[in-house]
Amino acid sequence: QVQLVESGGGSVQAGGSLRLSCAASGLTFSLYAMGWFRQAPGKEREFVAAITWSAGRTLYADNVKGRFTVSRDNAKNAVYLQTISLNPEDTAVYYCAAKRRGIVLSRLSEYDYWGQGIQVTVSS
């Protein structure tokens, strides 16, 4: 049974930072590209960042580029999202996801497995 479990969320003030982690189990982690998505209240789930299986390529949404960094540790079956300079518009539930096939890292529908999500709240 595949499980993706996010941690590291919470509440911070604008300008603060958080490091989100996602622990994966039940899959051959090193074969999967990993993505981070988020969903704010009343909005659709949106792409945030992704990293290929070998960490050879990363991709970011324009609104987080330069502030968020995605990384992975295949030995630990974990993917991370380091965030800095957070602003209230970053408030959302953040999800990690895993995809085995497909080439479009930002395409939500190509992801096979999803975590339960974790809340990030940024206050002004």
Give the distance, in angstroms, between the N- and C-terminal Cα atoms: 40 Å
Helix content: under 10%
Element order, helices and strands? EEEEEEEEEEE
The helix count comes to 0
Which whole number gives the mean pLDDT? 96
Instruction: Give the overall form.
Output: globular
The chain-level structural class is mainly beta
Show unreliable segments: none
Cα gyration radius (Å): 13 Å
Describe the largest sheet. 7 strands, mixed
Work out the strand percent: over 45%
Oligomer: single chain
Give a quick set of tags describing it.
mainly beta, 4-stranded antiparallel sheet, 124 residues, 7-stranded mixed sheet
Write structural notes for this entry:
Helices cover 0% and strands 49% of the residues. It has no helices and eleven strands. Strands 2, 4, 5, 6, 9, 10 and 11 form a seven-stranded mixed sheet that branches. Strands 1-3-8-7 form a four-stranded antiparallel sheet, with no helix packed on it. A hairpin with a 6-residue loop joins strand 4 and strand 5. The mean pLDDT is 96.
Chain-wise SSE layout:
Blueprint lengths: L2 E5 L2 E4 L4 E8 L7 E7 L6 E6 L6 E3 L7 E6 L4 E6 L8 E8 L13 E2 L3 E6 L1
Parallel strand pairs: 2-11
Antiparallel strand pairs: 1-3, 3-8, 4-5, 4-9, 5-6, 7-8, 9-10, 9-11
